[in-house]
Each structure stands twice: as structure tokens, then as C-alpha cells.
Amino acid sequence: MKEGRIIKGISGFYYVSLEDGLYECKGRGILRKDKVKPLVGDWVQVSHLDAEEKTGTLERVLSRKNQLKRPEIANVDQVVIVVSVKNPSPSLNLMDKIIVLAEDLGLEVVLCINKGDLETEKGITQNEIQEIYEPTGYPMIFTSAKGNRGIDDLRNKLKGKVSVFSGPSGVGKSSLLNAIKPGLQLKTGEVSERIQRGKHTTRHTELVSVDQDSWIADTPGFGNLDIDEIQRENLRFYFREFLPHMENCKFTSCLHLKEPKCAVKAQVEEGTISQQRYNHYVQFMTEINEKRRG
Ligand SMILES: Nc1nc2c(ncn2[C@@H]2O[C@H](COP(=O)(O)OP(=O)(O)OP(=O)(O)O)[C@@H](O)[C@H]2O)c(=O)[nH]1
Ligand SMILES: [Zn+2]
């Protein structure tokens, strides 16, 4: 019995990465009995390995640390959120939303600010973005896929992890992946599910290797951003720069909204917490509340 990771699954076959290559494994009946659907990213036990034919049997799915819905992947370590300084100008609202969803899943966050070559004094600068996000403590990488800048930094950040890239259309996600590993194109656009001659042709997500122990999902993460699935009491924990101040709020249950003597709001006043980040917090809270009322 050996353990490996499923890196793709196609119509009942699971491709499991072992030291000596990729094995095509058929699921065992026990999987159906246990009602586990093996997912890309799953750590599994395999048996009946044929090193020549590169086939085997999938015996058991090991417990997951997390599970993404779209794309459907298990055991993701981190999300690399990509925005560009220009064309399109950065949507920090969307960035904060993805951060919240990632935090809720317990994923690590890496912020990647691309198209540094297009920076001008008019638009938002890398420095301004850095100032806003510095207090969060998230690693920030400044890149130019075109100018081949920051690519080594980004590649280093992927080391030993399973990463999902996320961010608006046109910011350069595919270009960055291509710079990291030529030929590695990110599948973007809509996930197509066409029906051809009565047969379903679905696009499958797979993990592609950057190197031996680093993987990237070939589909961008968080296609549908359903922030209203977040518990309103939890939202405050997903704005990391709030955390050191929370204990100074008058009420331990403080949601940093209308409560008196709120230390978080005091920090916003002082400028140590970004007003914009705080505004997004309030906005997401409103969205969650509105959804609840239906
Ligand atoms: N100037 C400049 N242009 C870039 C850079 N990175 C990507 N681009 C360009 O931006 C456009 C969009 O790049 P993509 O890599 O397709 O962006 P994407 O995020 O994968 O977009 P979707 O596939 O729509 O999700 C392309 O024309 C790229 O050539 C960069 O660092 N600088
Ligand atoms: Zn407070």
C-alpha cells in the first residue's frame, strides 16, 4: 500500500502521483459504500500497483484538511490573489472578498500585484497597495509578467504547496503561470459543460506541477463569490489587522460597527488600519445581513 495525491480524475479513473510517476487508478467499491467521492488534491492509499503499466487500485481517501467548491479540489494550501496596478485597475473590494473566503477555508493568502511595468503616477501605485495591506501581514509580491520581474519570488512562494490562483479577468494570471513554467496555461473563462451527442464533455480541473512538491490548480479559484455563506460573527476574524486591537474594545463581542469604545474604529481614525479595508468590512457585513433577511 502506498500513499499519493490525486492530481486529476477522469470518468472513474484517478491519476495518483507517486515517486516513480503517475498511476491510473480505478476506485474500489468501498469508496462508494463509504460515500466518498475522491477529489483532485486528495491524499489516497493505492494498492495493486503495476509499475510497468502504471496502474493501480484506489483503496482509501485520507481525511481532508479542506475542500474548495469551485474548482472542486481538496487540500489546498494557499490562494494567490492577483490584481494589476493598471488595465484593469485593481479591484481591492474583490481582493478583500477573496481574502475573507480564503480565511474562512483556512487557506494561506499571498497577494500578487502584477503589471508593475504599467505603473504611472496617475493610477494607484504598488506603494499605495503595500501601505493598505502591510498591517495584514500577508506576503506581497510585485510582479511584471511582461517584464519578467518578481517571477522568482512568486515561484518561491509556491514551493511545497498546492496553490490556487484567483483574481479578476485580465490581470495576468495565465501570463504569470506561463512565466513561472512555460507551457503551463491556466484554463480561464467559463467552465464549459457542453452536451455533444448525448455525452457530457466537462472540463476537468487538474493539478499541474511546478516542481516535485509544488502544485497549481489549472482553474482559477472562487469563481462564485458567495460571501453570505460567512457567519457574521466570524467576519471580524478575517480582517487580520483588526485582531491585535480587539482585546481593547469595550465589549468582547464587539463587531466594530456601532458599538461605543471600539478599538478597531479608533485605529481606523488614527490611520493604522486602512479606512478602505474597514469600509469593505462594513460592506460585507451589510451583504451578509441582507442575505439573511432574504
Ligand atoms: N503590461 C503588462 N501586460 C501584461 C502583464 N501580464 C499580463 N499582461 C497582459 O494582460 C492581458 C491579460 O493577461 P492574461 O494572462 O490573459 O490574464 P488572466 O488573468 O489570465 O485573464 P483571464 O483569462 O480573463 O482570467 C494580456 O494581454 C497580457 O499580455 C504585465 O505584467 N504587464
Ligand atoms: Zn470593536
UniProtKB/TrEMBL annotation:
SUPFAM superfamilies: Nucleic acid-binding proteins, P-loop containing nucleoside triphosphate hydrolases
Enzyme Commission code(s) on record: 3.6.1.-
BP term (GO), one: ribosomal small subunit biogenesis
Compartment list: Cytoplasm
Cofactor note text: Binds 1 zinc ion per subunit.
InterPro entries assigned to the protein according to its UniProt record, in alphabetical order: G_CP_dom, NA-bd_OB-fold, P-loop_NTPase, Ribosome_biogen_GTPase_RsgA, RsgA_GTPase_dom, RsgA_N
Signal peptide positions on this chain: none
Any Gene Ontology CC annotation: cytoplasm
EC supergroup of this enzyme: hydrolase
Quaternary structure and partners: Monomer. Associates with 30S ribosomal subunit, binds 16S rRNA.
Described purpose of this protein according to its UniProt entry: One of several proteins that assist in the late maturation steps of the functional core of the 30S ribosomal subunit. Helps release RbfA from mature subunits. May play a role in the assembly of ribosomal proteins into the subunit. Circularly permuted GTPase that catalyzes slow GTP hydrolysis, GTPase activity is stimulated by the 30S ribosomal subunit.
Name of the protein this chain belongs to: Small ribosomal subunit biogenesis GTPase RsgA
Species in which this protein is naturally found: Isachenkonia alkalipeptolytica
